[in-house]
Amino acid sequence: MTNPFKYGGIVGRDAFCNRTQEMRDLRRAIENCQNLFLYSERRFGKTSLVKQVIGKLPNDKYLAIYADLWATDNEESFITELAGAISLGLESKADRILHTAKRLFGGLAPAVSLDSDGNPQLTFAMGTQAAKAVPLTEVLTVPETLARRRKRQVVVVFDEFQRILEYGDDRVERTIRSVIQHHQRVAYIFLASRKHLIRQMFLDQNRPLYRSGEHYPLGPIAAEHWQSFIRTRFRRSDKDIGSELIKTLCETTEGHPFYTQHLCHVVWERCKPGGRVTPRMLESAISMLLDRESYAYIALWESFGINHRRFLTGLAHEPRGRKVYASDFLRKYGLRSPSGAQRVVRTLMESDVVDRDNGSFLISDRFFRIWIRRTTSQFAYGM
Predict the structure, then answer these.
(1) What is the mean pLDDT of the chain?
(2) CATH architecture of 305-375
(3) Per-residue pLDDT tens for 268-288?
(4) Domain ranges of the chain
């Protein structure tokens, strides 16, 4: 029997938990041709959520373009990624994709090949010459042109949008703002995984994209929504899990979609058909996950300085929302000053080890947090 809990990739419909309100909100934003900045921690299911929404749009009324900016590092790679996304969004067959790409972006010298699964792959020979061959403004204008010519609304999704902050200058930001502010039939959805960067980009009045769309932070999935989702999938497999144990599981993962699905996946494997999940099974699953990651966690832990370890120890042991610059926290974990703690936080956020959490901070990897709690003492650095 196939394990019903999926993690580590795009989650399909049956394995997708809740997000009903979020899907409605996204759908309305698209219908109204709004610009929406959707951001959260990593592995929160932003891409899966958006693909669920655009996958349900009627093809005769909407055209969806999905551009993943993760692999981009400059204006030229941004141009080719967006040009490829537009071409693939318009056509599905290899010959038609190539025809469309040549018609729209012939200056980029497009070529189509098939991958090992027979799916078409679009590449451009003019990667480093893209800005000269096809200017950024020209590529950004295409979605609105398509909307008018085809009499359909267009939605453009930019995934991992924070990558443009690493391009070296703000030219791409400025050009995006100057072009899309005139679009009336296109909705732009900007997805980002580093919340502090996306806030910097859209809430700093000195940035080009300041206040250029609605903000939509994506939070964890509440335990009550996980209850029926988890219980139903166990019962379909002739396995059972009690409500209290589901609650404990969700408290362990803090409702984070990736870690909740991952832990459920391991627990499901440890429970035989006709059986019922026990607290011992849950604990055994957690221990197994920590054992699998122990080498990586040890290496990560040893890469930190003493103050970073002290700060992370405090975050791991204290309740969520703890004021980390308060004197009692600093004293308890041997941190000398608020300014020193701020320097530690800045470093840990830049490396994605911690993230902001409503005025405080949290450890991004929920299993790493458990590992720290189990391998350190909260009083180890006390004064």
Answers:
(1) 92
(2) Orthogonal Bundle (1.10)
(3) 999 999 999 999 999 999 999
(4) 20-217, 223-299, 305-375
pLDDT attached to residue 343? 96
pLDDT digits (tens, 9 = 90+) for 315-370: 999 999 999 999 999 999 999 999 999 999 999 998 999 998 878 899 999 999 99
Tally of CA atoms within 13 A in the half-sphere of 111 that contains its CB: 7
DSSP letter assigned to residue 221:
P
pLDDT at site 381: 55
What is 20-217's CATH number, 1.10.630.10, 3.40.50.300, 1.10.10.970, 3.10.580.10?
3.40.50.300
Distance in angstroms (rounded) separating the CA atoms of residues 257 and 353: 17
Helix (H/G/I), strand (E/B), else coil: 92: coil
3-state secondary structure of 360: strand
The amino acid present at 373, given as its one-letter code, is R
Candidates 373, 358, 205; CA nearest to 301 is: 373
**DSSP secondary structure, 120-164, as one string:** EEEEETTSTTHHHHS-HHHHHHHHHHHHHHHT-EEEEEEETGGGG
- Cβ atoms of 90 and 146 within 8 Å: the answer is yes
Q: What per-residue confidence (pLDDT) applies to 140?
A: 98
Closest CA relative to residue 260, chosen from 295, 291, 237, 285: 285
Name the token pair of 137: 């403004």
Residue 382 has pLDDT above 60, yes or no: no
| DSSP, res 69 | -
By 3-state DSSP, what share of the chain in percent is helix, strand and coil, each rounded to 5? 50, 15, 35
Percent of the chain with pLDDT over 70: 98
Sign of CA dihedral 203, 207, 213, 217: negative
Please tell me the distance from the alpha carbon of residue 354 to that of residue 359, in angstroms, as a whole number. Answer: 13
H or E element in which residue 180 lies: helix 171-180
Q: What is the largest CA-CA distance in the chain?
A: 70
Confidence of residue 188 (pLDDT cuts 50, 70, 90): very high
Q: How far apart are CA 165 and CA 167, in angstroms?
A: 6
